[in-house]
Design goal:
The chain is of the alpha/beta class and 212 residues long. The chain has a domain at 20-167: 3-Layer(aba) Sandwich (Rossmann fold), CATH 3.40.50.300. Helices cover 35% and strands 31% of the residues. A 9-stranded mixed beta sheet has the order 5-4-6-7-3-8-9-10-11, sandwiched between helices. Strand 8 (162-171) and strand 9 form a beta hairpin. The longest helix is centred in the middle third of the chain and has 18 residues, at 118-135. It starts with a strand and ends in a 7-residue tail after the last strand.
Length: 212
């Protein structure tokens, strides 16, 4: 299976070249763990490299998200003007955007699970999987760990092509962040905890892997 680069220093090394094409990947983490930021960074770098991104937001305004991105020096407005980035909230447009060769991000699946019936949310995920398989690209779903019961979280992980877990804890007065690939169809990755930190430019993956 073809792998596509994320263009994030260290991450493509961990991923042995990148993420497998035609994949819907779940990013799971507690607030502040970095799972949202990494998903946004992957999409931003893809758009910088002449790709197209459709950012589906369920509960935050595009203006609020643009301000968040500016924190790391990411100017999304210029990408919007170039036609390589759009904010959207009508989830029925997801298959069309994928057909038009956009990578997509759904921020957040947790909000949908809180406001809609589970069957409706699973239908959205299955439609996304079908479109990704047909038209390709990387498509990311964001889920906040601890907001839903274990069965729901496990169900979503089972359905998606891949699942990445993000962990954060305080150690000796410093914040320790790590990510782990829990599953990934179409590829085989080493099962390990990968340390990373958040810099002024976004997430930096530590290439000298500590034993965890």
């Amino acid at each position: 299976m073809k792998r596509v680069k994320t263009w994030i220093d260290g991450l493509d090394d961990v991923l042995e070249g990148g993420l497998p094409d035609k994949s819907v990947i779940l990013f799971v983490g507690e607030p502040g763990s970095g799972h949202v930021l990494l998903a946004q960074q992957i999409m931003y770098y893809h758009a910088l490299k002449e790709g197209k991104v459709a950012y589906f937001t369920t509960n935050r305004s595009p203006d609020a998200l643009r301000e968040d991105f500016k924190t790391f020096g990411w100017e999304v407005s210029t990408l919007e003007e170039a036609g390589r980035w759009i904010f959207a909230n009508d989830l029925k447009d997801i298959p069309l955007k994928i057909e038009q060769s956009s990578w997509t991000i759904l921020d957040s699946l947790s909000y949908l699970l809180l406001t809609q019936k589970l069957k409706s949310v699973l239908d959205i995920v299955e439609s996304l999987l079908e479109s990704a398989q047909k038209h390709g690209g990387i498509h990311l779903l964001l889920l906040t760990h601890g907001m839903h019961d274990t069965q729901i979280e496990t169900t979503i992980q089972h359905l998606t092509d891949g699942a990445m877990e993000f962990l954060v804890q305080e150690v000796g007065g410093t914040v320790d962040r790590r990510m782990r690939i829990k599953k990934m169809s179409k590829a085989v990755y080493a099962q390990r905890l990968v340390p990373f930190h958040i810099s002024e430019h976004g997430i930096v993956v530590e290439t000298a892997v500590r034993i965890a």
